[in-house]
Amino acid sequence: MPFFQLFRKPKKRKAQSRWPYGQDSGSVVLRSERSGQDVRSLVARYSDGDLIFEGQDLGPSVERFFGEGQWEYEWVFTVRKANLPKLEKALNTADLLAALQRDFSGPNAAGIEAFLKLHNIPYEIWNRVGG
Fold first, then answer.
1. Would you state the pLDDT for residue 25?
2. CA atoms 29, 100, 97, 20: torsion sign
């Protein structure tokens, strides 16, 4: 490093947002299970301030539910950033990921959609069934 650079003022860094719903706010695994040929997974994470639930079911249980040759079901629920305070109030916490992991892990993961509906928390749905 040249001598003159030792005396330069450090560059100012951008202030980090204290808003908890940033892209790098983490994720939690709510379901990750295997039973025979069936595999089920569900993850909750933040993306651009929104809370995203991403789930996937694979195996013969999907085929029994959706019909022959349909072995994969994927879905995404998106709770937009503007609706997260309503979800915080319903869960009585500001730490949504921890509360979701506490209340909706394992078999309880199936109750997320009913909980959102019960508390009138708007969410968007995308899903796909395939073979």
1. 62
2. positive
Of residues 81, 83, 54, 57, the one with CA closest to residue 70: 57
d(CA 113, CA 26): 21
Among the listed residues 32, 20, 15, 30, the one whose alpha carbon sits nearest the alpha carbon of residue 112? 30
The structure tokens listed for 126 are 């995308």
**What whole-number distance in Å separates Cα of residue 38 and Cα of residue 59?**
4
Q: How far apart are CA 70 and CA 58, in angstroms?
A: 9
Q: Is residue 14 scored above 90 in pLDDT?
A: no
* pTM across the whole model: 0.77
Show the tokens assigned to 112. Answer: 């997320």
Tokens of 72: 């994969």
Is residue 99 predicted with pLDDT exceeding 50?
Answer: yes
Distance CA 43, CA 53 (A): 6
Percent of the chain with pLDDT over 90: 69
Out of 11-15, 45-49, 70-74, 78-82, pick the least confident: 11-15
